[in-house]
Specification:
Length: about 280
């Protein structure tokens, strides 16, 4: 399917400086690995979403272009390298995400905590957002991340529960909701966040149902964007959702009590994350 006229990305300059910093420190970003359409706009600012725990994922979600295979060992220097790169880029708001590491006893939670702590040590005035996997529902793993005191805890629902067997076969919708709920109960001062992608065959009512579930779980911020097929091996786009539908969803989400809602075709979970935090 050809992209509709309302989906246009910006051409930007200065992205090679950001790439140079990332390569110097030996770091991966979800911007590159997941082929984000907004990479030029973000890298030119500069900003990036750091992807830790390696670049190979133990899960195989139908929408994602990150390589699925047996991951290698963790790099013990990675937390410090992320902090150094963030400082060199002059970031005031840092987003850390990861591949899913079901092969690790804590799902990589301890590595998340070390990375948050390293950033807070080197950039004490900066804010940190984590976007984590579900850790298979391991509460001890979740608590490791919470102890490091990130400012925002993000975990994406991604889609409606009916489509999980197709889109996220190794994930569980209720487990994701439970994780967000546990974050809010254990650390009510930490803002919680989640995201959805549209265009995979969901209905409007199903999307509203997910929004209600997220609010019931105490989720503060929600992002909704259009799914764009990154590679031919990934799931095809079923429908390109029109901007007015995204706006209707945004208004519905606000009426449900979310503190901040970003809903538009090119919205992505980590894009403009600093703006979301301060609004």
């Amino acid at each position: 399917m050809r992209l509709p006229e309302w989906i246009k990305t910006k051409r930007c300059t200065g992205i090679h400086d950001t790439k140079r910093i990332l390569r110097y420190h030996g770091l991966a970003t979800v911007c590159e690995e997941a082929r984000c359409p907004n990479i030029g706009e973000c890298f030119s600012r500069p900003t990036a979403t750091f992807m830790i725990l390696g670049s190979k994922c133990t899960r195989n979600c139908g929408f994602c272009s990150v390589e699925s295979s047996l991951p290698g060992p963790l790099n013990p220097e990675e937390p410090e390298r992320v902090a150094m790169a963030a400082r060199e880029m002059g970031l005031r708001y840092i987003v850390i995400t990861s591949v899913t590491r079901d092969d690790l006893y804590d799902g990589g939670a301890g590595h998340f905590a070390k990375t948050v702590s390293a950033i807070k040590r080197h950039l004490p005035s900066s804010k940190v957002e984590v976007l984590t996997p579900d850790f298979k529902g391991n509460r001890d793993a979740l608590n490791k991340v919470l102890v490091s005191e990130p400012d925002v805890y993000n975990h994406n629902a991604e889609t409606v529960p009916r489509l999980y067997p197709l889109i996220r076969p190794q994930a569980d919708y209720r487990r994701s909701l439970s994780l967000l709920e546990q974050v809010k109960k254990s650390a009510p001062n930490i803002r919680t966040k989640s995201g959805l992608m549209l265009g995979l065959g969901e209905t409007f009512d199903e999307v509203v149902g997910v929004l209600r579930d997220l609010r019931s779980a105490g989720c503060d911020i929600v992002t909704i964007g259009q799914y764009l097929r990154p590679l031919r091996i990934n799931l095809p786009v079923i429908e390109y959702i029109r901007p007015e539908i995204f706006e209707r969803i945004r208004l519905t989400a606000l009426s449900l009590g979310f503190q901040y809602v970003a809903s538009a075709p090119l919205v992505r979970s980590s894009m403009n994350a600093e703006e979301m935090y301060h609004n």
